[in-house]
């Protein structure tokens, strides 16, 4: 049970009333006649102490909890060493692992970088990369790494400026002004402490805007590639193994940070490289930048996600994945490779969103969330000051969701409408062409029209089969979610099937061709009666009505979420960490096996398992290719100890953005690099459940073994050894 910080004698949470349970779960389990699911009495389900998770921030470090729970002195110096050893890189996390600026992260975090540094005649994604000397380390253009220099809580300053606002518009204006002033003050304060190429400040709202922190970063822009495993090793098992365990991926890479003088940067702190690794029961701390989560949302908000937004997203992902799969089946090799990469991105999102939807449809999880909300409501009601300020926040959040629900069908029909990667070229040209025609009718300046024409020229023709499939899918969305007599359906389809409607546009609209579109714009003959333009004009009012409703409710919901965050912090203080925000966090966990599918998942896997998977599933085309091995790995390299731990799991609370995060011991020795979660960990968007959820890490012992026995990276091994001393 969560214990309110502010209420000395909190009221004991009442059991979840049966009628409430029915209201919560009737949509999910309409066949049930009581509040029992799988032998669990939902009336008795209670929230756990850490249901909100363990994504602790560095401005509110859990020193006492770490020290008491794990038996070491987690003091200010310990947290400072941990913080300054970690980096945030684009989309991922990383860490210093030597006194000479060597940085460890995941291979999949730098997969695109490897392609960018590949020179003519090379295939570094296939062959891997090892810089034999310091001079061979390759600069990465446009890359950067951020080190958290300092954090300051600026909540009081922000709310002192915004609480008196008379409207949402004024509140946003005042908030922007105070944040800008605070940023300038902090830049002046910390500018003299810069050790990178620049210092910058990021203002991060925590607790959904209930608190504000200023994060001051050192930014390093001279980053060079040192070592990268082969793609097939870093992503061994491919999409089928994604979000699963046991795993056998050697997902690692090394970078190096260089200083302003062009020599390797000398960090003040780094993680020593562990020689012993971990065993089951060992505590590990994973430090990185978890992405956005939804743990602090109200039950009403979660129910809306369960019933409307997440199912619509899952359906959209599945339909587009199917489109690409159908096209890939008969595509030439080059196109098939591009489609495979796009399909992986969709599949990754499908699995993640499917796991989120399963969690939202789990009555026990929702009962725990409901109990936690009830505890908070009772704590707010027990405090007159909090009750006066925030007593109706849950009711008002629920009212917003109720106002959104009538738009559910249109939300699904318009899902990802402006997704550039998965909308047809014709659709994008029509949208821009309509804007160009209207700007011309309004007498906009010639330079504005020229800019729009230039933007139009960048929309190239896509594969004809893919173009048609994407257009058909958009018409199918409308047909699937809206009633047959809905004006949007009758306008979009005009009595045709989705296939016929797509073919009609492709055959009759000038926007079906990049060349024809460009010629019409240059000649000034773009026809307002083009069928694409006519359709866009007729559909636009309905789309704008939908957007107006959603946009009108958004700011109000954000303010209420901020109020809820303030109330929650007033009640629980630092005992409840904020949602993930892709800002630096530290989380604790234990290396631990778990039961699944009638067996037990081991705490770690080995190279033996890698070769077992290769022999059983690899050496083939199609799906088997996911477990193929690079040529130099197909026979175990001489001296490779196959019993070396390769991947391991722990109960640490990680999420997207934690890829590349270092896993360290209480002595701040590096033992692993986080790269994934198991399928049970997908519920972490909403709740932290360590009974089965696990984060998956590549073991430093496997990285060392590969550097020594396979990649011949003695220079890097010596540097790691020196850094461990």
Commentary on this structure:
With 725 residues, the chain is α+β, with helices and mostly antiparallel strands. Among the domains are: 18-46 and 295-411; 420-549, no CATH class. The protein contains 26 helices and 23 strands. Strands 3, 14, 15, 16, 19, 20, 21, 22 and 23 form a nine-stranded mixed β-sheet that branches. Strands 4, 5, 6, 7, 8, 12 and 13 form a seven-stranded antiparallel β-sheet that branches. Helix 10 (299-328) runs antiparallel to helix 18 (464-481) and helix 14 packs antiparallel against helix 22. The chain is globular, with a radius of gyration of 27 Å.
- N-to-C span: 43 Å
Quaternary structure of the protein:
single chain
Low-confidence stretches: 5-34
**Number of alpha- plus pi-helical segments:** 26
Structural shape: globular
- Please tally the β strands and state the result: 23
Largest sheet geometry = 9 strands, mixed
Counting helices, strands and paired strands, the structural category is: alpha+beta
Give the helix/strand layout.
Blueprint: H1 18-25, E1 36-37, E2 40-41, E3 56-57, H2 63-70, H3 76-84, E4 86-89, E5 92-96, E6 102-105, H4 111-117, H5 124-127, E7 129-130, E8 138-139, E9 145-153, H6 155-162, H7 168-190, E10 198-206, E11 211-220, E12 223-228, H8 231-234, H9 238-241, E13 253-257, E14 272-273, E15 283-288, H10 299-328, H11 333-360, H12 363-382, H13 384-390, H14 393-404, H15 408-413, H16 425-441, H17 446-457, H18 464-481, H19 487-493, H20 498-508, H21 514-523, H22 531-572, E16 585-590, E17 594-596, E18 599-601, E19 604-606, H23 607-617, H24 631-634, E20 645-650, E21 662-664, E22 669-677, E23 695-699, H25 700-709, H26 714-724
Parallel strand pairs: 14-22
Antiparallel strand pairs: 1-2, 3-16, 4-5, 5-6, 6-13, 7-12, 8-12, 9-11, 10-11, 12-13, 15-16, 15-21, 17-18, 19-20, 20-23, 21-22, 22-23
Helix pairs in contact: 6-7, 10-11, 10-14, 10-18, 14-22, 16-17, 16-22, 18-20
């Amino acid at each position: 049970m969560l214990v309110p910080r502010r209420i000395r004698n909190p009221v004991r949470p009442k059991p979840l009333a049966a009628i409430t349970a029915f209201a919560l779960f009737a949509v999910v389990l309409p066949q049930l006649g009581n509040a029992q699911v799988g032998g669990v009495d939902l009336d008795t389900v209670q929230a756990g102490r850490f249901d909100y998770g363990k994504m602790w921030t560095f401005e509110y470090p859990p020193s006492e909890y770490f020290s008491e729970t794990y038996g070491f002195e987690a003091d200010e110096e310990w947290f400072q060493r941990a913080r300054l050893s970690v980096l945030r890189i684009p989309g991922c996390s990383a860490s210093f692992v030597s006194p000479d600026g060597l940085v460890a992260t995941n291979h999949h975090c730098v997969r695109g970088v490897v392609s960018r540094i590949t020179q003519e005649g090379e295939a570094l994604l296939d062959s891997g990369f090892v810089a034999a000397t310091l001079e061979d380390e390759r600069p990465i253009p446009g890359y950067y790494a951020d080190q958290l220099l300092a954090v300051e809580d600026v909540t009081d300053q922000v709310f002192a400026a915004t609480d008196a606002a008379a409207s949402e518009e004024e509140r946003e204006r005042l908030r922007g002004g105070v944040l800008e002033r605070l940023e300038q003050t902090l830049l002046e304060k910390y500018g003299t402490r810069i050790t990178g190429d620049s210092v910058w400040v990021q203002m991060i709202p925590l607790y959904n805007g209930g608190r504000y922190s200023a994060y001051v970063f050192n930014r390093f822009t001279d980053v060079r590639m040192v070592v990268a495993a082969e793609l097939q090793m870093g992503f061994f098992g491919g999409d089928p193994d994604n979000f699963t365990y046991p795993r056998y991926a050697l997902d690692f890479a090394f970078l190096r940070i260089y200083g302003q003088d062009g020599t390797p940067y000398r960090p003040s702190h780094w993680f020593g490289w562990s020689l012993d690794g971990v065993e089951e029961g060992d505590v590990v701390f994973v430090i990185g930048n978890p992405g956005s989560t939804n743990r602090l949302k109200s039950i009403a908000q979660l129910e809306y996600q369960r019933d409307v937004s997440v199912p619509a997203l899952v359906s959209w992902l599945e339909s587009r994945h199917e489109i690409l799969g159908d096209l890939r089946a008969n595509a030439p090799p080059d196109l098939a490779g591009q489609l495979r990469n796009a399909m992986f991105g969709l599949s990754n999102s499908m699995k993640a969103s499917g796991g989120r939807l399963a969690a939202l449809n789990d009555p026990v999880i929702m009962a725990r969330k409901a109990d936690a909300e009830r505890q908070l409501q009772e704590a707010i009601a027990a405090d007159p000051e909090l009750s006066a300020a925030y007593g109706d926040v849950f009711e008002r959040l629920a009212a917003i969701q109720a106002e959104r629900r009538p738009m559910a069908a249109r939300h699904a029909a318009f899902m990802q409408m402006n997704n550039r990667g998965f909308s047809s070229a014709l659709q994008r040209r029509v949208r821009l062409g309509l804007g160009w025609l209207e700007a011309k009718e309004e007498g906009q300046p010639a330079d504005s029209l020229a800019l729009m024409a230039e933007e139009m020229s960048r929309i190239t023709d896509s594969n004809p089969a893919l173009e048609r499939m994407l257009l058909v899918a958009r018409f199918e969305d409308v047909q699937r979610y809206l009633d047959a007599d809905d004006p949007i359906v009758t306008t979009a389809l005009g009595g045709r099937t989705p296939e016929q409607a797509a073919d009609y546009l492709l055959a009759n609209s000038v926007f079906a061709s990049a060349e024809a579109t460009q010629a019409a714009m240059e000649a000034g003959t773009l026809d307002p009666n083009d069928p694409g333009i006519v359709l866009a004009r007729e559909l636009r009012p309905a789309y704008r009505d939908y957007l107006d409703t959603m946009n009108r409710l958004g700011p109000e919901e954000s303010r209420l979420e901020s109020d809820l965050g303030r109330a929650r912090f007033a009640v629980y203080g630092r005992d409840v960490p904020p949602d993930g925000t892709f800002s630096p966090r530290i989380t604790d966990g234990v290396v631990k096996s778990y039961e699944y599918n009638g067996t037990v998942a081991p705490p770690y896997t080995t190279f033996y398992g890698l070769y077992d998977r290769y022999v059983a599933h690899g050496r083939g085309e199609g799906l088997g290719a996911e477990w193929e091995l690079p040529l130099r790995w197909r026979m175990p390299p001489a001296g490779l100890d196959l019993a070396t731990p390769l991947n391991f799991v722990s109960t640490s609370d990680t999420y997207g953005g934690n890829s590349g995060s270092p896993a360290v011991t209480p002595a701040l020795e590096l033992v692993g690099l986080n790269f994934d979660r198991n399928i049970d960990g997908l519920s972490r968007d909403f709740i932290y459940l360590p009974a089965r959820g696990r984060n998956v890490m590549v073991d430093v012992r496997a990285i060392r073994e590969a550097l020594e026995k396979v990649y011949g990276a003695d220079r890097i091994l010596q540097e790691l050894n020196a850094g461990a001393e």
